Amino acid sequence: MDVATEPKPEPEPLARSEPAGYGRVFAVREFRAVFAAHAFSLLGLMVSEIALSVLVYRLTRSPLMSALTFALGFLPYLIGGTLLAGIADRFPARRVLVVCDLVCAGFVAVMVLPGAGIAVLLAMRCALATVAPLFQGARMATLTDVLGDGDLFVLGRSLLRIVSQSALLVGFGLGGVLLSVVSPRGALLITVGTFLTSAALLRFGTRRRPARSVGRSALVKDSLRGARQVLADRRVRVLLLLNWVPPMFSVAPEALAAPYADGLGVGAAGLGLLMCALPVGTIAGELYAGSRLRPEARARLALPLVCCTLLPYVGYALHPGLVWSLLLLTVSGAGSAYSLGLDQWFVRAVPEELRGRAMTLSTAGLMTLQGVGMALAGVAAEFAGVAATVTGAGVLGTVCCLLLAVEARRTEGPGDRDGGGGGGA
User: Fold this and answer.
1) Over the stretch 63-115, which tens digit does the pLDDT of each residue have?
2) Where are the transmembrane segments (predicted)?
């Protein structure tokens, strides 16, 4: 049973004249628990993805079925993000997070069973992906409770993104090493442990808070109504699109890295470098913006950055070699520092009673459109080639971002250009 504890004093709000930094975020005790839980659950997901892919391939000897296990990580996001979003606001956030972790641990535990066949494995993979947007949306909304809705929230969310990008660099490598020591089902058992650890950290590391809203109708109906309320606001709608559209185009080089590396003749090592370049740029850009720029500077730079982040892809028109490709991808990744400004605007634009649903919808849309972007890039490359497809993604994506930036400027409030101050917990 949840037991409320008295809140402890948190750090003072970040003053507008002070340089930003991540130290103030880690000074918040509850955030440290959320951060650690995120790291453990993400580690589990990375290990489970590669272990499940290997396990499915060993059972079927089918590359298609192995690839399908990754695709199923994107497809159910839209279902969970729209039909279950109401849970994030109707129940206490800590309870939602802990139950989601326990449910995910249960799904993976079913995969570990020796008798689990292909149908069961893929069904559990879909179930994990359905719960994921609810968990991630509730966690993002919880950050506003823990850190406030000012600059500490922006930096906290930035840290979680940095961990996610870092996991892309090391997670699959660690999973491969792990599979050289234990069986795929043994690796999945480790994933069960990481989910349980995350649940324990959230249960005992964060305090109980009441639900943001009271549901008076069926869950699905309430979730869909909440989505309509979120999307009905013109400002929120354009900020959601700014959060979704650039990543939809930015995944093109990642989706086509294997054929491009093959065309360059750089082998597996070159492919690995191409896959790492975007995350490296993203981490560098976020670290610099979060640690060196003030909130008002990040707000001023958000729209210029979002309009420029896909421009480096136009360089693929020149069929660059490995070194130049890595440079283009790294620069593009660094441009994703625009997210810090968007985060501040988004949390200010969404009413508190809808934050859980809005964050869940944001996560679901992001993951779904990234999957769509990968698929469209593959189809386009079949006809136009890899270089032309990435170039086209850069041109079309930049045009879309420019149009959205104009709309964002039209809908901005009086405090949006200067970051709205530094509010804390």
Assistant:
1) 666 656 666 667 777 787 777 778 888 888 899 999 999 999 999 999 999 88
2) 33-57, 63-84, 96-113, 159-181, 187-206, 238-258, 264-289, 301-318, 383-406
> Does 140 share its domain with 225?
no
**In-domain check, residue 110:** yes
Domain check: are 86 and 161 in the same one?
A: yes
Residues 287 and 385 in one domain: yes
Structural domain total, the chain: 2
Whole-structure pTM value: 0.80
Asked whether residue 29 is assigned to any structural domain, the reply reads yes
Q: How far apart are CA 221 and CA 229, in angstroms?
A: 12
pLDDT for 10 beyond 60:
no
Q: Are residues 256 and 395 in the same domain?
A: yes
- Answer for the pair 420, 150: CB distance below 8 angstroms, yes or no: yes
**CATH for 147:** 1.20.1250.20
When pLDDT is averaged across residues 398-403 and rounded to a whole number, the result is: 97
Residue at 198 is within a domain: yes
pLDDT digits (tens, 9 = 90+) for 251-281: 999 888 888 888 898 877 787 788 889 999 9
